[in-house]
Amino acid sequence: MSTIDLNSDLGESFGPWPMGDDAAMLDVVTSANIACGFHAGDPAGILRSLKAAAERGVTVGAHIGYRDLVGFGRRNMEPTDAELTADAIYQIGALQGLAAAAGTRVAYVKPHGALYNTIAHDARQAAAVIAAIKAVDANLPLMVLTNAPVVQQAREADLTVICEAFADRNYMPDGSLVSRTRQDAVLHDPAEIAQRMLRLVREGRITAIDGSDIELDAQSICVHGDTPAAVSIARQLRVDLSAAGVALTPFVV
């Protein structure tokens, strides 16, 4: 039987402004990337999401990002090495404290948005994030974009790497994500997405935006929590993958 992890970006609501449906998503996913307050989330809301994850036995990861609440962490930035390392340490540590209070623990680290896409190919910023993880806990796996240079860079630094594919995003022929500045960057049809991901699990392939096939080696599939149809997509994924004999299990327990 094949296995795959299903994750989602959660804990991103801020005060009275809701973002996504964490409770519903936590009933479906096996891992939750919880915001750490820099790109989204406030302490009380993050704690609620952590408690809900703990109640359901969902594995928790630190979803670290640039210090960019206004841009939701999706704007490119150029912090110094010292700034980025310290910011990452700060966010992981903050989530560790909240996770302990919620009766769970931070089991991995996944960068968010622009930081995620930048470190995929920017060795300098990737090194700063890697240094932060090693300073806090070198046993924490790093979740990154599959096939990107950061995979080898992190492995050479002796970190465990979790390669990730995105269910609700279109891909360029080189394996990078289609820019969110394009209208066709995000996929919305749950049935189509589920079939794409089933093929990924079975064949290690996915269709790029130009119709070509690309190979992706992924141990986890992400559904963005802020996508309008996020819960429907996640539910369809779970149903179709399970029906095909694919077991949904967290990569860290």
UniProtKB/TrEMBL annotation:
<dbReference type="GO" id="GO:0017168">
    <property type="term" value="F:5-oxoprolinase (ATP-hydrolyzing) activity"/>
</dbReference>
<comment type="similarity">
    <text>Belongs to the LamB/PxpA family.</text>
</comment>
<keyword id="KW-0547">Nucleotide-binding</keyword>
<dbReference type="GO" id="GO:0005975">
    <property type="term" value="P:carbohydrate metabolic process"/>
</dbReference>
<dbReference type="InterPro" id="IPR005501">
    <property type="entry name" value="LamB/YcsF/PxpA-like"/>
</dbReference>
<comment type="subunit">
    <text>Forms a complex composed of PxpA, PxpB and PxpC.</text>
</comment>
<dbReference type="GO" id="GO:0005524">
    <property type="term" value="F:ATP binding"/>
</dbReference>
<dbReference type="InterPro" id="IPR011330">
    <property type="entry name" value="Glyco_hydro/deAcase_b/a-brl"/>
</dbReference>
<comment type="function">
    <text>Catalyzes the cleavage of 5-oxoproline to form L-glutamate coupled to the hydrolysis of ATP to ADP and inorganic phosphate.</text>
</comment>
<dbReference type="Pfam" id="PF03746">
    <property type="entry name" value="LamB_YcsF"/>
</dbReference>
<protein>
    <recommendedName>
        <fullName>5-oxoprolinase subunit A</fullName>
        <ecNumber>3.5.2.9</ecNumber>
    </recommendedName>
</protein>
<keyword id="KW-0378">Hydrolase</keyword>
<keyword id="KW-0067">ATP-binding</keyword>
